[in-house]
Write a structure and sequence with these properties.
By secondary structure, the chain is an alpha/beta fold. It contains 15 helices and 5 strands.
Length: about 350
């Protein structure tokens, strides 16, 4: 409720007097902010007084932009900070006396900055609308995505054990039937999801399908959105507890590395800001230790997918995040080996899975 109220208040602050402008995309907004900073810097060169007076405002914008690069663009408070300081700078630019020889180019740059400010406000309002829609969304976890497929899926065949692959876009894009022909491997990945959403659909998309095992690949989107490590770990733990309760073997995969190798082709492909490799490695260490403690199979994709620099190898992805065909060819035998290990005979002394 408080989050919804905050979003509404932030939107109202900028709705008044808003001129029509086409909102930039998520990929365009950060480069637009960078351009605004360049224009502010240029204004300071043209007018030293404006440069001195506008320096704190520019620094506020710069800090907010850096935070957006790290946390991701779905942060309305940070966009509010950028816009508030942009507006303050434009008001300052109007009030500060200009030198007689104030160049025409500088006036054009101020006009460009005003236009960018309107575009940024349009993005902010569009983001607020999206976040409001998310809050009102009755199907937060996207249960409808596989509802029909789940209804028509037949019962599993003991001779060909069913395995559900649960995850985000990396799983969603994996054509399992091409890499694992004649196997009852069921893809239940949904692009963009975080662990909390996967937990929310775990019964419908995993338990109800009565698989022998589940492969869980999750966490990269959580890190990108600033979800705490504790929340990620709690969500993974609860999914594993649910699997245990229904005698489903658990295979927990490491989070894949990401890279910046393709950022020259597209600035949006600079991935390590939103998904820092140290954060990924820290979560992978927890996943591995958790698997060892619980007796689950740990599916470690990371070393096979990383290049010498520790980032996702450039030939295994075209955007620094999502594996391409070559990447999936690396992952497939690792996944199959983990599944065979999980479905093999129980080891002596293996703990009995408790039921709720």
């Amino acid at each position: 409720m408080r989050k919804s109220l905050l979003i509404a208040v932030l939107a109202a602050l900028f709705a008044a007097g808003q001129q029509e402008a086409r909102p930039p995309s998520d990929q365009q907004i950060l480069p637009l902010y960078e351009r605004c900073l360049q224009l502010i810097e240029a204004g300071g060169v043209a007018s030293q007084e404006l440069g001195r007076a506008g320096l704190p405002l520019a620094e506020n914008i710069r800090m907010a932009v850096e935070s957006l690069k790290f946390l991701g663009v779905r942060q309305p408070q940070l966009h509010y900070r950028v816009l508030a300081n942009l507006r303050a700078y434009l008001l300052l630019a109007e009030s500060v006396p200009k030198p007689v020889n104030f160049p025409a180019m500088a006036r054009q740059q101020l006009a460009e900055l005003r236009d960018h400010s309107l575009s940024a406000e349009a993005y902010f309002l569009a983001l607020i609308e999206r976040l409001e829609n998310d809050l009102r969304q009755p199907d937060r976890d996207n249960l409808r995505r596989y509802r029909d497929a789940n209804r028509t899926l037949g019962p599993p065949n003991p001779a060909n054990p069913r395995v559900v692959f649960l995850g985000d876009s990396i799983t969603d894009s994996w054509r399992l039937n091409e890499y694992f022909p004649n196997r009852d491997f069921v893809n239940r990945g949904i692009s963009g999801q975080i662990t909390g959403q996967m937990l929310g659909r775990f019964y419908a998309d995993v338990i109800a399908l009565k698989p022998a095992a589940v492969v869980i690949l999750a966490g990269t989107n959580d890190i990108a959105r600033g979800v705490s490590a504790e929340a990620i770990q709690n969500n993974l733990t609860m999914m594993c507890e649910l699997a245990d309760a229904h005698r489903i073997k658990v295979i927990l995969a490491s989070i894949l590395p990401v890279s910046d190798h393709h950022k020259d082709a597209n600035p949006a492909f600079e991935r390590t800001r939103q998904r820092p490799l140290p954060a990924i490695l820290e979560m992978n260490r927890w996943i591995q230790a958790f698997c060892e403690k619980r007796g689950y199979v740990y599916l470690n994709y990371y070393p096979a997918m990383a290049g010498p620099d520790g980032q996702l190898a450039p030939n295994l992805a075209d955007d620094g995040l999502h594996p391409n065909a070559a990447g999936y060819r690396i992952m497939a035998p690792l996944a199959l080996a983990a599944i065979e290990k999980a479905l093999g005979p129980a080891k002596p002394g293996e703990r009995r899975r408790r039921l709720f």
